[in-house]
Design brief:
The chain is α+β, with helices and mostly antiparallel strands and 560 residues long. Helices cover 39% and strands 27% of the residues. It has 16 helices and 21 strands. The chain starts with a strand and ends with a helix.
Length: 560
């Protein structure tokens, strides 16, 4: 390539003489762009590679040109945009020549700069990706100590606080004898889970991915890797696992309660299932008594301690979670529609583990189910009571009374124990209603009930068979006890005089008594018939008296 003359004036080319004196072959041989400038910085000549640079000089796009000409030998970078996009970067230097001329030489460093920028960008990209994908990066030297930790540090320590220390100082010890230290791995590892201790003592779970470093001869020279903190993920996983476990246990308890057919057995099933599900030594379930607001034991399973202090504390708080004497106690009230209707008490012996958060959550869920079960039982009891009691007096009705004494009679036969049945009929009760009205008649019936309750024991049964007919079952009563009860009732019956319809029709008792002495082959039907017959004999004989039925024929035959 030859030097080209860029003198616009033409004529005897000064550029030609100049190019000759500078050496056209020399300009052409220069590997980069070369431009000859006069003392005013105008282009005289250039080689083929310098055409773009010469044009930039002519157009005044070389900002550093004056500095380069004034300080020959200094270098400067210049970026020249290309028409099609992109740019060329030149490293420029101006050298003096004869006759006051200068040679502007350039070195194209575009590729070098682009490679350097790409390398910087790549390194920054790699650094950003490492920081995004991990919580800290590290390198272990051949001595097993940190030689590098990413600048932001780790485990609550600054980076320089970790340099020179062993990772084992921060690893929570694994009791497994075969557990390997992932920080000193001999092969590539990925997402190995390790629990580590932070500067504040808290434990964190990290996933470690690492590659070993080997020397020229294959010896281990250390490890390089990253750690990602997954503590919150593990805690969430653990919480979800515990919640699923609680759900399974609660489903087991609820299913056990619902599978119990008899309402009375529902709470007993709940006590056993709850104790087993929560690993308790024992479980007690109490129901709230509506009459006085106190707790009464409804079901129990396993061992339990003294509950009185625990129950008393539930009057002021819904929960009890404390050690009591030699027991660990966890208790909570049960509710139905926001109203307390019972309590669940769990017991563990003192040498066992204390109650945990999962236990506390589960007992609350159990208490909700027990509250529902207790309400179902209460409803059942109310319906049962209505079906078995007289609406006015609250005493057993005819059906319930005869069912109950039939059940008791069978037990008497097995045990050979006595009992007595008293049939009670009110004399002249119709006159009470006719003269004073039915309201007074109802009050009279309630007064009769009260007299019979006063002269019987809690183990005895009293029933209103209908109208003005009553019956009393004296549990385990011999003949002399039955006779005494009849005499007491007749004496107490004087209190009914205020209800009488008239003096000639006083309100009195007619009592018929049949005694079952125990052991004989008499049936319950025969016993009832004897008491009923004795009562009607009193009615026919003048009323206001009692009569003892003769022994049953079976007893007479045995005596003979």
């Amino acid at each position: 390539m030859v030097a080209r003359d860029h003198n616009p004036r033409g004529g005897s080319s000064h550029g030609g003489q100049l190019a000759l004196s500078l050496g056209a072959d020399g300009l052409s041989a220069f590997p980069g762009p070369a431009v000859v400038l006069d003392a005013h910085g105008s282009v005289i000549a250039s080689n083929g590679r310098g055409e773009g640079l010469a044009a930039a000089v002519t157009q005044g796009r070389i900002a550093c040109l004056s500095d380069l000409l004034s300080m020959p030998g200094t270098t400067s970078l210049e970026c020249l945009p290309l028409a099609g996009g992109g740019a060329l970067v030149f490293d420029l230097v101006a050298l003096p020549a004869q006759s006051g001329l200068s040679i502007l030489l350039g070195r194209d460093v575009t590729l070098e700069r682009n490679l350097r920028a790409a390398l910087v960008e790549s390194r920054q990209r790699y650094k950003d990706l490492v920081e995004i994908s991990s919580d800290f990066a590290w390198e272990i030297g051949a001595d097993g100590r940190f030689v590098f930790v990413s600048p932001k540090g780790a485990l609550g320590h600054a980076a320089d606080e970790l340099i020179g220390r062993r990772p084992a100082e921060f690893v929570v010890q694994d009791n497994s004898p075969a557990a390997a230290n992932p920080f000193e791995a001999n092969g590539p590892i990925e997402d190995v889970e390790v629990w580590m201790r932070q500067s504040d003592g808290a434990q964190v779970c990290v996933l470690i991915s690492a590659m070993p470093l080997h020397g020229d001869t294959g010896e281990w020279r250390g490890t390089r890797g990253v750690c990602r903190d997954v503590t919150q993920e593990r805690l969430r996983d653990a919480a979800l696992s515990r919640a699923n476990a609680r759900e399974r246990l609660l489903s087991y308890i609820v299913r056990t309660i619902r599978d119990e057919v008899e309402p009375a057995g529902m709470l007993q099933a709940a006590a056993e299932a709850t104790a087993r599900a929560l690993g308790a030594s024992g479980c007690q379930i109490f129901r709230l008594r509506p009459e006085d607001g106190g707790f009464s034991l409804a079901a129990a399973f396993g061992e339990a301690g003294p509950e009185q202090i625990v129950l008393e504390s539930l009057a002021d708080s819904d929960h009890f979670d404390n050690d009591h004497e030699s027991w660990r106690v966890l208790a909570t009230v049960c509710r139905y529609r926001h109203s307390v209707n019972g309590a669940v008490l769990l017991w563990r012996t003192a040498e066992r583990a204390a109650w945990g958060d999962d236990d506390r959550l589960l007992i609350d869920d159990v208490a909700n189910q027990v509250g529902l079960a207790a309400e179902q039982i209460a409803n059942h009891e109310r319906v049962l009571k209505l079906s078995r009691t007289d609406g006015l007096t609250g005493l057993f009705n005819r059906r319930a009374f005869f069912e109950e004494i039939a059940r008791r009679f069978q037990r008497l036969l097995r045990e050979g124990r006595p009992a007595a049945l008293i049939y009670v009929d009110l004399d002249n009760f119709k006159a009470v209603n006719d003269v004073h009205g039915h309201q007074t008649g109802d009050r009279a019936l309630l007064a009769v009930r009260d007299l019979m309750v006063q002269h019987t024991r809690p183990t005895d049964l009293i029933a209103r068979l209908g109208g003005d007919e009553f019956a009393i079952w004296l549990e385990a009563a011999e003949e002399k006890i039955a006779v005494r009860r009849c005499e007491e009732l007749l004496t107490a019956g004087a209190q009914l005089a205020c209800y009488s319809g008239s003096p000639d029709k006083p309100l009195l008792f007619s009592l018929g008594v049949a005694v079952h002495s125990g052991g004989e082959a008499e049936t319950i039907e025969a016993l009832i018939a004897r008491a009923d017959k004795a009562m009607y004999e009193v009615k026919r004989g003048g009323k206001g008296a009692w009569r003892l039925a003769p022994p049953s024929p079976a007893t007479v035959r045995i005596g003979e």
